[in-house]
Amino acid sequence: EDKVVQSPLSLVVHEGDTVTLNCSYEVTNFRSLLWYKQEKKAPTFLFMLTSSGIEKKSGRLSSILDKKELFSILNITATQTGDSAVYLCAVYSGNTGKLIFGQGTTLQVKP
Amino acid sequence: GAVVSQHPSWVICKSGTSVKIECRSLDFQATTMFWYRQFPKQSLMLMATSNEGSKATYEQGVEKDKFLINHASLTLSTLTVTSAHPEDSSFYICSARAAATSNQPQHFGDGTRLSIL
User: Fold this and answer.
1) What is the mean pLDDT of residues A29-48?
2) Which of A28, A38, A78, B35 is a good FRET partner for B18, with 20 to 30 A between their CA atoms?
3) Cβ distance B25 to B106 under 8 Å?
């Protein structure tokens, strides 16, 4: 059965800290892996990764995919209170064309 | 770009009422739209996938007669919760994808919080 597992499930840090969120997957016919940020409303798109070893970067956020070891990490440097959110990892299955979501990591950044 | 609008954002209604939720892609044509349900502190659960001009594909355990989905155009999909009951109260989120294949990300609407009294 296809599954996506995120760790840790929750994390509390202080402003300025760097955090690393993990996502491992077992999905048949992998197509791509996506990261989303969810605050009080629906998820907003962060990154889509399809190739191993190529870092995607947007400001203080970056992500990389390892297709051999079947995982991805999302890094946030110099965290701010506005980074507090649930971060969702999702993988596209080529068999079904559907996104399979992980449980999410709840990040709280304290001032 | 890639803006998805969902309306209404919040609905409170009596048991037995039918509720329609709209999902629109504002700046792109969405060949595929998805409807999710999310319970508090849980991840998104896919309810159904709809492709423009064809019938929706429902996930196992989702009643198609209860959750009616229409995707009549490339920019609009609707979800109607028929004869809603308190157990249908949840956060419903739609997403849209520009391509029929999975090489484009899904973009989400802001969600609809449904409360059935």
Assistant:
1) 91
2) A38
3) no
Q: Which of the residues B23, B43, B49 would you substitute to probe the A interface, choosing the one with the greatest number of A C-beta atoms within 10 Å?
A: B43
* Tens-digit pLDDT profile for residues B25-61: 998 888 889 999 998 888 889 999 988 878 899 999 9
Residue A107 contacts residue A83 (beta carbons within 8 Å): yes
Q: Do B34 and A99 touch (CB under 8 A)?
A: yes
Integer Cα distance of B81 and B67 in angstroms: 5
Of B2, B103, B106, the CB nearest to A99: B106
Q: pLDDT-based confidence at A38, cuts 50/70/90? A: very high
- Residue A67 DSSP SS3: coil
Q: Using CB atoms, which residue from B43, B102, B111 is nearest to A97?
A: B102
Cβ contact (<8 Å) for A97 and B101? yes
Q: Shortest CA distance to B26 belongs to which of B56, B41, B4, B43?
A: B4
Contacts of A104 in chain B (CB under 8 A): 43
Nearest-angstrom CA–CA distance, A43 and A36: 6
Verify whether the Cβ–Cβ distance A94 to B102 is below 8 Å: yes
In the block, residue with structure tokens 């990764």: A49
